[in-house]
Amino acid sequence: GLNISYDTRTNTLNPLDGSFVELKTVIFGKWLGSKFRYNSISLDARKYFNTVGQHTLALQLLINHNSPQNGTVIPLRGLSQLGGTDLIRGYREGTYQDNSMTVAQIEYRMPVWKFIGLVGFAGIGQVYEETKDWQLDRFRTGVGGGIRFMISKRQRINFRIDYALGLDKNSGINGKGQSGFYLFVGEAF
Q1: What pTM value is reported for the model?
Q2: Which of the four pLDDT bands, split at 50, 70 and 90, describes residue 34?
Q3: Which of 189, 123, 120 is nearest to 148 (CA)?
């Protein structure tokens, strides 16, 4: 595959400002020894704005497109998945999965007191088999908030505790919605 990146972030783990753009393409071919034949291309674009003091507004757009070749299927681990600790929090990882996806996320990070901070976030995204299946009414949304504990001031590393709601009312078992707590070291994006 080929990977091209552009990075002006002040810190890769928890930036105050800057940009990150990565274009990645991977080819899975029989001639490379793969049992599956498909191509994958993804764009991950992030922008960070230092609004005031140590406050940060973070934006992300992620597009991943997988295209199977010669009638083969994409393996389960190669599918695009929404949910989990990083993409549209509020849904269990893999609740929605298909060949391709489009995701947009926003997060506002602000310090509160010494090493403690608060975060509010929202995300919207969808998965689809082919580009022609992409539709406005198929987007799934999640919203939430969290608390941050800075465990390394020099490297700006946070331990995060987030709570999020998946706003798709029929995403869970028995037609109920989903929600979740997330404990993680580092930011979602």
Answers
A1: 0.91
A2: confident
A3: 120
